[in-house]
Amino acid sequence: MGEPPALAPPAADPSSVAGGADGLIDLAGVGARLLRFAYLLVGERGEAEDLVQSTLETAISKRDQVAASRSPEQYLRAVLLNELRARRRRLAGSEPPVAPGAATDRPDGSDVADSVIGRLVLDRALLALPDSQRAALVLRYYADASDEQISHVLGCRRATVRSHVRRGLAAIRRALADAGDPFGTGGVDHD
After folding, report:
1. Over the stretch 165-182, which tens digit does the pLDDT of each residue have?
2. What is the CA radius of gyration of the chain?
3. pTM for the predicted model, two decimal places
């Protein structure tokens, strides 16, 4: 009978984007991590969701660039940061965002009010930082990224990353000290 006819390649899955070892990355998994990353940067879920949606739309339209990157997820974080910067430029001069203060019960049964106050102070201190310092801290302490990875995402040198982290932590420590040490650390340095 001969050779069977060649099958056409499967249609691209709309929930995937070029990149990764198999040529695709799972947007559902990456999207959830990007949402948490965006939330830590902006402090508001709706705005974080908008940022992630814009990022994923860009990723789909630039599949080849995502595929060519060494780390597709790192590339998407850079796209998200660029989108955030563009939005901030458009909104320059408007009122700064208000930090949300989600309260959670403390497992040790201590006063929840102290936890809420500490979280509010920390959220506001983080949101008051310049975008580059906030992004460096979130990448370092949330995403557990190295200086090299952070420098790639932020588009700066590793020494600049270390400077952003150091200055951001100093500003947060000052804010916590000004608030009367709401976490009860006694001024201990936790680097």
Report:
1. 999 999 988 888 887 765
2. 20
3. 0.53
